[in-house]
Amino acid sequence: MLKNNLKDISNIVLLRSDKILYDLLNIDSYEKLDKNLSYEHGMRDFYSNSFRKGAIENSMNHTLSHSDSKFFTLDYEFDFLDELFDNYLKFDGNHIYAKSELLDKYSSVISKIHPFNIIGHKLAKLYNQNHFSFTNIKEFTKYITPLALSVNRDYKEYAENHLHLGGANDVALNFMALLSLPTNNKFYNMKYTNELPRINEFSYINNGNLSFGNLIDISKYCVSVINDFVLKKGVRTDIKRDLDNLFKYEKLSMIDIDFASFTMIEKLSDNRMNLKDEFLKEIITYKKDGYTTKQWFLYNILLFKTHETCRNRDIRKVIKIFLHIINILRSYMVMSQNIGLSHFSEFFGSSLRKQEKNRHNNIASNIISNGTSKVEAKISPDALLRNDKEFISYKLAFDKEIIKKESTFINKTHEKYFLNTNHSKRNYHFCVHFVRKKDETKKSNDTNYCLARFNKLRTDLKKEARNINNFLYQESHIINKFDFYSKFYSNITRVLEHKKDLENDYIDLTKLITTIDVAGDENRTPPEVFAPIIKYLRRDVKKLDDFKSDYLKYQKDGHDFVENYKLRLSVHAGEDFNHIVTGMRKVHETVKFYGMSDKDRLGHALAIGLNPKEWCELNGDIFVTKQEHLDNLVWLYHQSIEVLAYYKNTDKLRDKYARVIKELYKDIYLSKNDDLSCEIEDMYKAWKLREFCPIVMFSEDEMLNKADEYLKIADFDNEKLCKEEYKKAIDIYKKYHTCASVRKKGDEVIKIEYENINRNLYKYFITDEDLELIEAVQDRLIQKFCEKGIIIETNPSSNVYIAHIHAFDKHPIFRWNPIECDDLDLNADNPKFNKYKIRTSRMKVCVNTDDPAIMPTTLRNEFDLLERTAFGIHSKSKEKIENWCENIRKLGIEIFDCDHQKSEFRRV
Question: Which InterPro entries match (predicted)?
Fold first, then answer.
């Protein structure tokens, strides 16, 4: 998690504080507030007890000094934003970009407040002072990016190989939707507040003094008042009364609030009303074209322009209220605090982020406008299989944005509207990601027997996998372009106009799907659950005799047939974990159980890159279930065999693990009369059996179709099952799944202490020696995966926001793929990232954004952040760092191009 410095916090609080907002709504006159309490409390709650009170007061005084005021009043000015702009941003012709040397600090600021607040104030001030004309403002608007981050002025291609479309919708889209739609009744309920992420500094919201229904209605009303003032230059006389009513949960009529939606202004414009304000005119133009980000940018300038020129305190107060509310609402859409995937899921799943359903164009625009050239975008199976075929909406949206970028280079008339993506400089394809879910299998009344773990999810996944399989190999998904656009394109007249060109071209929709992923909270669902469906969807397509005739027919029919490639893997693994060994084991399970090989990719994989001792010191207490700890020790015991020659204390630690393993096994798996004679090797074999489906393995249904491809993959080799060497392993495996008492005992939670001198007070402890062995095992796994040709998808900002990484220079990308050769050199005295002399290779890595609207970033920004933070820490040579970044960028392009399948073709 990135923390803000104290100087920035004092600025942020004046734009995002529920305490100042509460005072703005409650206090009639600005003069009545003669203390700094709301301001000071807003700062003290930011990171509780992290700063001295004197330091907080000095920071406040520094910020207030920009407004020539020694005391805080609710009529404060926004001049402090000048310093924020000058510190972090710069003008570059008609572009406005963040300064590269302060990107990490800038990132922490814009995770709390919208960057358009900072830029909006600067441009408004320069406009009011006649330094900029409205023509200049329009130029800045034309080239502004959603986060004011630099795009690729070096004209290089950047490939995004790990991006969730659901995490790429810019918050401006949701702001406009919240202002335009009727307020959902659930927003007034405290239960809804509790479903959203808990943000510590918003104590009034957390305590129920302000509901989200309040906030949304008040913000609508504020915009209505502001728009009315800008258009008519008159001030409503009932503002205080209306705000009081809205604050007390009383809704105003939608006639009053509808003016906030910009739809009313658009209607007035359509009715030839003379809109005198040039800002509102331009905002309506962008609204008609569907560019919400540019609307929001212009509106921010208008807000600060109005605040600076208007001396009416009610209008100034309304503008402040609106800015606080909007930044508070944004805080529930952008991950600005907390760590771990569970917290991230609250931000990702927040319904405040999902107000606008027609988001496809905005998402595509945000990605392409930020300089990304090639995109592998993650979508859910629903987006593929539902009747509305959401992935087609994304295809059309990407086509539109790419054509806009490339229209000057497109000569053919029809290709100005219907892009041939195979020949485009900007390609895209999709990765279908299955979602991890909690085990919702109904428990049996039988205390001695229960259904296999994740029985319900396994059954659902099997159906989902078969539907995806049918989609990938259905003849109906090879479609004539004219037929395709006649069905899905919005402008049917244009389709008919270009019928002659379109009817000779074809689209194979199945070629848009190139990759499979498993995403979501790893603590919910282990990799084993998805292993059968992953292997089923990746089986050798040449063996699919059912579809051979269709392929032959299409070739004979004159189609330029492109063979089907084996789907690539791009799987989330080792991103979030209770124990670093759990994360390492799950990474290994993903590779082993899914059959990962050359050019397959691991997403995040932090568990095999974070320094174990640093993780342990940051994490504090470790809580795991007994089953998890047993699995970890059995796995670690076996992995340690491969580092015996490298780490001197391995034998001693293996003896310790063996004792604990036997105690845990006895506690979980054995009743009083059971035989204890079970070897650790049997437990390890039982762990290996988990890649197969227990529903299939334990089924007594003799009518199962043995020719079924899924059943063949999900079942274990019957010949091995009959062998004596697997007898005990199968018994353990069966108990693991179906024995209720084993499940119950295994779910008991234990605490593992970090203690170097065990005083026999507890048996579950971890020492520096354990952590050294874990580091050696990490190095061995990294080396093995290098030899397999596996690639790690790194997502630096995402990892810093979610994981126990407090600075970009601590990211494990520098360990996986060191900049300096000496950091791995076996002949060096003390190689920085090869302590035990196990590694001989650099791990291949690519850089991505993950969820660029939730962890505010862009792909180009990720490279800039790595390049800036590496200097002086991981290399003193700027040239080496630049070459290192360039090699990673090129690999990203190679990965995309290797996976990309041509989806469009002509008759031969």
Answer: Metal_Hydrolase (IPR032466)
